[in-house]
Amino acid sequence: MSPDQWGSLWILEVGLNRRMILKATGAGIAARLGVPVSSLGAMFATVPARAQQADTFPSGPVRIVVPVNPGGNADRIARMLAQNLAKLWQQTVIVDNVPGAHTSLGVNRVVRAAPNGHTLLSSGDQLAINAALGRKLPYSETEVRGVTRTIVNSQVLVVRPGLGVNHFDDYVALLKRRPGEVSAALPIGYGSIYHLAVEMLNQRLGTQTNNIPYAGGAPAMLDILGGHVDGALIDISGTIQNIQKSELIPLAVTSPERSKVLPDVPTFHELGVSDFVIESWQGVFVPRATPDEVVAGLNRDITAVLHSREFAEPLEEQGFVIAPGSAESLDQIVARDIALFREVAAVAGIKPE
User: Fold this and answer.
1) What pairs with residue 155 in β-bridges?
2) Given this model, what pLDDT does residue 352 score?
3) What is the predicted pLDDT for the residue at 42?
4) Residue-level pLDDT at 56
5) For 311-331, what is each residue's pLDDT tens digit?
6) For position 137, what pLDDT does the model report?
7) Could you read off the pLDDT of 218-231 as tens digits, one per residue?
8) What is the pLDDT of residue 274?
9) Whose CA, among 129, 291, 318, 341, lies 20 to 30 Å from 136?
10) Given a cut of 70, is residue 37 above it in pLDDT?
């Protein structure tokens, strides 16, 4: 393999034999994961079964395919997960960025991989969006199965200070006085989670915004901060510092409950928009034919990592919510989002590019 081909691979090598973790004391394992010793019982309720599985899985390097470019939140979360799984498994874990075609190139690589748990997909709501918009894909979303959701990154409705709006009711009144004039930035452009969120809110409120697409969150934020765009529905993690500096005015969050990092900002439900919940999320998937016992082991190990201080604390400080669950619940989330996004897109007339 040439240096250029290796350019998208990030390899975390662990030189110790992976079986050494089985010889560790309870305190040693707890320290390695950054969790209390008392938590180990719940995490590893079937110790003999887990120990037996550790002799066979993983039997070699594990690859986590990330279907986006390096550098963003999705990539960062996958690398944090890889680092911690490598410690737990005492095995090499590779992060392989395979961007392109609205994440479908990376997803397709996992769909075609051997269903043995050694090739994982770290992806999120884009999996549902691609299916909902009817994009031409080389696979069906049913060809992967969930392992666990990892994080949720709720959105916050923010406006520029110069707009003269300090409360959600004022914003709605402005939209209705000036239909189609108030601008809304769309990070990562048309057909994105942010576009769907803006259209969904307009549908719930009976309003219309002037939607302006951007290639990413950073240029969108620059134009809002510069007073060129009126506001956006954008990830909490990407706006928390600007909100804390009073550079942006937060009006509402899209999560079912208030954000721990924005405790004074109400939810849309509190403000009377009870049917408006939309969140960005990430999860881990495997090929559909992966055996149940392999999925169960992956779910257990990844959940342990998600609850570790090393993984959770830096993300929670930025507004992410650690959100593991069952494999079945992740499949249900994908199906739910496909139905929701398909309905919103149909009403808004959003077509695949």
Assistant:
1) 235
2) 85
3) 52
4) 77
5) 999 999 999 999 999 999 999
6) 95
7) 999 999 999 999 99
8) 85
9) 291
10) no
Distance CA 149, CA 302 (A): 10
Domains and CATH numbers, the chain: 3-151+279-343 (3.40.190.150), 154-278 (3.40.190.10)
Peptide linkage before 99 cis (omega within 30 of 0): no
Q: Model confidence over 269-304: pLDDT tens digits?
A: 999 998 999 999 999 999 999 999 999 999 999 999
- Which of 74, 75, 268 is CA-nearest to residue 156? 268
| Partners of residue 148 on adjacent β-strands | 284
Tokens of 342: 């398909």
DSSP string, 49-93: HHHHHHTTSSSS-EEEEESS-TTSHHHHHHHHHHHHHHHHHTS-E
Q: Which tokens hold the place of 334?
A: 């994908």
Q: What is the DSSP string of 238-263?
A: GTHHHHHTTSSEEEEE-SSS--TT-T
Three-state DSSP class for 97? strand
What torsion, rounded to 10 degrees, do the Cα atoms 35, 39, 45, 48 define? 50
Least Cα distance to 147 among 293, 310, 49, 341 occurs for 293
For residue 20, give the H/E element and its range. Answer: helix 20-23
